[in-house]
Amino acid sequence: MKLLLIEDDGATADYVRQGLVELGHACDYSATGIDGLTAALTNSYDAIILDRSLPQLDGLSVLQALRAEGKTVPVLILSALGQVDDRIRGLDEGADDYLPKPFSFHELTSRLAAIVRRGEGLASTMVIRRVADLELDLLSRSARRGERAIELFAKEFQILDYLVRHAGQVVTRTMMLEAVWDYGFDTGTNVIDVHISRLRAKIDHPGERPLLHTVRGAGYRLDAR
């Protein structure tokens, strides 16, 4: 998933970001309400983790502005303001969930998965994405092609997830860099080509219909054509 963390406490932000990246997620970070709102309005995210007590613009004001702009991205409030009235107000303002601090990282990731599932209208027990006989399970972070299990590293899973979500469409290298790596990543690198080559070797075995295609001069496309 591509996530946005809006949190002014540096220690909390580092802890959450490191954990999310280790799980294979891309996580942008903003330390102020203004910067967070700008990022949320400018970019596309699967979910936002939002603190309430932020400099420049408080978390509830960020949330109100997002909803006023018609942004339906799932939002999880992560806040030291954890009384019942605080949680009710956050949910009433448009948050999809509310997790008081201190918190369990495992609970945080479980709640994120739940609000993303609800936002996508998917079954509550499993998130499966499919292209032909290729299946991606977002909860177990596993992949299969037919009866064959596919072992993927974290970045390979992220790239494949992005390709599956855009199945049938041409995905450029820049699009993948922005979705899977930080925006400041060096776009002159061949890291995408290296990962795609390894990914193709894992999902397209001899005798199977190729799914991952190179579109010369443009990028890549995942489909069964």
Number of DSSP E strands: 11
Q: Number of helix segments?
A: 8
CATH superfamily of the largest domain: Response regulator
Overall, the morphology is elongated
Mean pLDDT: 87
As a percent range, the share of helical residues equals 40-55%
Reported for the largest beta sheet, the result is: 5 strands, parallel
In words, what does this structure look like?
- The protein has eight helices and eleven strands.
- The chain is of the alpha/beta class.
- It has two domains: about 120 residues, Response regulator (Rossmann fold); about 100 residues, Arc Repressor Mutant, subunit A, CATH 1.10.10.
- The protein has a five-stranded parallel beta sheet, sandwiched between helices. A four-stranded antiparallel beta sheet has the order 6-7-8-9, with helices on one face. The chain has a two-stranded antiparallel sheet with strand order 10-11.
- Strand 8 and strand 9 form a beta hairpin.
- The two termini are about 25 Å apart.
List keywords for this structure.
single chain, 225 residues, alpha/beta, Rossmann fold, Arc Repressor Mutant, subunit A, 2 domains, four-stranded antiparallel beta sheet, 11 strands, elongated
